[in-house]
Design brief:
It comes from Streptomyces yangpuensis. This is Amidinotransferase. With 282 residues, the protein is of the alpha/beta class. Helix content is 25%, strand content 21%. It has eight helices and 15 strands. The strands form five sheets. It has a three-stranded mixed beta sheet, with helices on one face. Strand 12 and strand 13 form a beta hairpin. It starts with 11 loop residues before the first strand and ends in a 13-residue tail after the last strand. The mean pLDDT is 96. Bound molecules: arginine. Arginine (ARG) binds next to loops.
């Protein structure tokens, strides 16, 4: 436990080395294929993120990158994994459709229980974030709102739908991060007025981000309950988190931001089924 009373819980993440990272098409406002990208820089920035997670004691698995899938580094989009059940993504754009079979195989080969591809467009943890026992579900740009009912049935958890309205924040994880069970931070202007009301009502103590931190992708953060790994450019947000007793850890992922992604986009949380305790003989 930290001095602030916050506790880190070790996590299990799936990541994908940006071996084929590039910006060759544009499916969000950050992507400009005419701007050069340097795969080597992307690789070393990603490696640093990976090493930070290892230093924090998290377990990291890797999925093999596939040629011609330059966005595959954004592993958060590959699936949603909860209670050992795996709902693999169905991507909005054909450019990324080839990632789904790679994730289906990865989970099936490792004996994960129920592994299935979503029927409706569903970009994994890009749009589905677990807060306590509720799945927060974004729609508006990528995931189909019908994916929410599907996720509710598949996981047996309640789903809270949120509508995104600013194309710069096209996935929920670009506009909102879960810090601890019921603590979140978000950028209000990224959401429809109705969703803003829902968020204010449900999370009255949330950290509200300023635009400067939001456009630095500060909300694309990964928290273990104590450490919050986020882009180092989001300095304001880092200060706010520290005031609340979190330990912000800045990483430079500027190369990956050229594709519209940062720390959280690179990180898919794997949540196994709760261990079954052997029943006691009486
Ligand atoms: N270029 C990718 C896309 O537009 C970036 C994905 C970012 N991932 C995320 N979880 N927000 O699909």
């Amino acid at each position: 436990m930290s001095r602030s009373g916050r506790t880190a819980r070790p996590r299990h993440y799936l990541m994908c080395r940006p071996h084929y990272f590039d910006v060759r098409y544009s499916i969000n406002p950050w992507m400009d294929p005419t701007q050069p990208t340097v795969t080597e820089t992307g690789l070393s920035q990603w490696k640093r993120l990976h090493d930070v997670f290892v230093e924090l004691g998290h377990r990291i698995d890797l999925i093999e990158p596939v040629p011609d899938l330059p966005d595959m580094v954004f592993a958060a989009n590959g699936a949603t994994v909860l209670d050992g059940r795996v709902l693999v993504a169905r991507f909005r754009h054909d450019y990324r459709a080839g990632e789904s079979p790679a994730y289906l195989d990865w989970f099936a080969e490792r004996g994960w229980g129920e592994v299935r591809q979503a029927e409706y467009v569903n970009e994994g943890e890009g749009d589905f974030l677990l807060a306590g026992d509720t799945l927060l579900a974004g729609s508006g740009f990528r995931s189909d709102p019908r994916a929410q009912r599907e996720a509710e049935e598949f996981f047996g958890r309640s789903v809270l739908g949120l509508t995104l309205v600013d194309p710069r924040f096209y996935h929920l994880d670009t506009a909102l991060a879960v810090l601890d069970r019921d603590e979140i931070m978000y950028y209000p202007a990224a959401f429809s007025p109705e969703s803003r009301e829902v968020l204010a009502d449900r999370f009255p103590g949330a950290v509200l981000a300023e635009e400067a931190d939001a456009v630095a992708f500060g909300l694309n953060a990964v928290s273990d309950g104590l450490h919050v790994v986020l882009p180092e450019q989001a300095r304001g947000l880092a200060g706010r988190l520290a005031e609340r007793g979190f330990e912000p850890i800045g990483v430079d992922l500027s190369e990956l931001l050229k594709a519209g992604g940062s720390a959280k986009c690179c990180t898919l949380e794997l949540r196994p089924a709760p261990a079954v305790r052997p029943s006691r003989r009486v």
